[in-house]
Amino acid sequence: MEMALWRCVFIILLKAVWQGPGDVLSQNVTVREGEEAILRCTVLEGAVRRAWLNRSSILFTGDEKWSPEERVSLLKGTKNQYALRINPAEPQDEGSYSCSQQPPGRVGAKIVIFHLSVHVPPHIYNMTGDITTDETSNVSLRCRATGNPEPQVTWKRIVPPGHEWRRSEVSLPSVMRKDAGTYECSARNGVTAPARRRMILTIRYPPVVTEVHGAGAALGETAVLRCEASAQPPPEFTWFRDEHRVVTRHGIRLQTTDSRSLLMFPNVTNDHYGNYTCIASNTLGTSAASNLLHQTPTESTNRVKEDSSHRRGPGLDIHGRACSTHSFSFVAMLFVMMVAVMGLHAD
Ligand SMILES: *[C@@H]1O[C@H](CO)[C@@H](O)[C@H](O)[C@H]1NC(C)=O
Ligand SMILES: *[C@@H]1O[C@H](CO)[C@@H](O)[C@H](O)[C@H]1NC(C)=O
Ligand SMILES: *[C@@H]1O[C@H](CO)[C@@H](O)[C@H](O)[C@H]1NC(C)=O
Ligand SMILES: *[C@@H]1O[C@H](CO)[C@@H](O)[C@H](O)[C@H]1NC(C)=O
Ligand SMILES: *[C@@H]1O[C@H](CO)[C@@H](O)[C@H](O)[C@H]1NC(C)=O
Ligand SMILES: *[C@@H]1O[C@H](CO)[C@@H](O)[C@H](O)[C@H]1NC(C)=O
User: Fold this and answer.
1) Nearest ligand, CA of residue 265?
2) What is the pTM of this model?
3) Which of 84, 143, 260, 270 has the fewest CB atoms in 10 Å of its CB?
4) Of 138, 139, 140, which is best to mutate to test ligand 4, by the most ligand atoms within 8 angstroms of its C-beta?
5) All structural domains of the chain
């Protein structure tokens, strides 16, 4: 392409620009990245010169291609249109394109300016990863996203459901254990569904025993002592009876999860009654609580005791049997004495 023609087109365009708004039309075209963009300019009857420009660089003059860009072509088979095709459209193609035509018998050119927008789905490219920290530390969450239009970035605590921040950087000063959870960053620009990513904030703290449950059981019954604790990292549970660590022999079983320990006695014997201490510990500390496994009357005596309030009299031999099996238990003794007193009153 000779310099002369280039200069010619340039001059035509310059003239057109100075000719006033009547001859400059403007049009918006929006496509998504990767799609085809077609800019359609209606052919003026008998126009002598035509050109397509990308900003100020020439893409085509007439049917002759100036641009080295392979993605650019003229749409074929469109008699009434001088149409530019960009396939696939890329983000850097966004900008102004102009179609210029010189109508017959006029000096100036008629120009249509196309504002091409190339939309890009949101993409999160830099985000804070999982954090494990201690209470009172300052935590900051960062989430950077690209996209066109510029995405709106939002942080939200989703597990457990919590606060939402409409910004990409969030400061959590002096975090407490209640701040722990799963946080999600989402970037939204309306081109596709929002981009989302999650991170987990873990706050470490020493154990706190939140609940202990003693139990009462008769000989031969099943008993469960329960100890619940919260801690991060999750606590280890140990059980003591007086100064001795409880071993899971002698008919004792242990069932422990991250937050709970069950000391189970499938078949309570006299040796099992006592004061048990549950200790929850992690690297940051320990917490302890005590609970009692105490003896209660056997089920059969319970039933009889209920019955005896209605039918006075018989049942003394049953009390006697209870006495013989519980003879070494103080609690049982107490119970028997109680029933005996009741029996006296009944008489
Ligand atoms: C093109 O878009 C701009 C904003 O992006 C708007 O101001 C203008 O009115 C639009 N023009 C046409 C012809 O739609
Ligand atoms: C338009 O020009 C811009 C900037 O010079 C360039 O990055 C882009 O690839 C061009 N696009 C086309 C379709 O020519
Ligand atoms: C993310 O942003 C942080 C803070 O600006 C920077 O230090 C880090 O290098 C970035 N990471 C990546 C993968 O770009
Ligand atoms: C947290 O930030 C506050 C003020 O912004 C500062 O006084 C404090 O020392 C910080 N704490 C830590 C653990 O960095
Ligand atoms: C419970 O223990 C006693 C004494 O050791 C035994 O006689 C009894 O059979 C046991 N009961 C069960 C259900 O295992
Ligand atoms: C059980 O033992 C703990 C620790 O040894 C003690 O503090 C608590 O008073 C005891 N409880 C009972 C009911 O004896």
Assistant:
1) 5
2) 0.71
3) 270
4) 138
5) 3-119 (2.60.40.10), 128-205 (2.60.40.10), 214-295 (2.60.40.10), 299-346 (no CATH)
